[in-house]
Amino acid sequence: MIRRGGRVSGAQAVATWASGLPRNKEGPDEDERSRTEHIAVAIAYDAALATLRTVEVRGFDGYAITARLLSWAAMRLAAAPLDKPGAVNPIAAFGLGPLRDACAAAGLSVTYV
Fold this sequence. Notes:
By secondary structure, the chain is an alpha+beta fold. The protein has one domain (about 25-110). It contains five helices and three strands, in the order ααββαααβ. It has helices at about 10-20, 30-35, 60-80, 90-95, 95-105; strands at about 35-45, 50-60, 110. A three-stranded antiparallel beta sheet has the order 1-2-3, with helices on one face. The longest helix is centred in the middle third of the chain and has 18 residues, at about 60-80. It is extended, with a radius of gyration of 19 Å. The relative contact order is 0.14.
């Protein structure tokens, strides 16, 4: 059970203060999200700063992609909890192949340049 404020000193005061702040709108609607594109570019360099590999990841509707990936990860972890302590990155948690497949199923495309 998650309790608002928990046992952190001052947390209740912060939660009360934050609840009075102005709210943003709910976020973009489905039409707005369908018109967005997200691009992430990663470039690997060697010690002499020569480019080894460039990778582009593209996707549309970042809200839906995020929801799909979080759902996938939650279902995997519910079925087989991690045996690694602490925080781990997605590749360490799920493996490169399954993560790559999940990203493709969520609507991300990868281009190696």
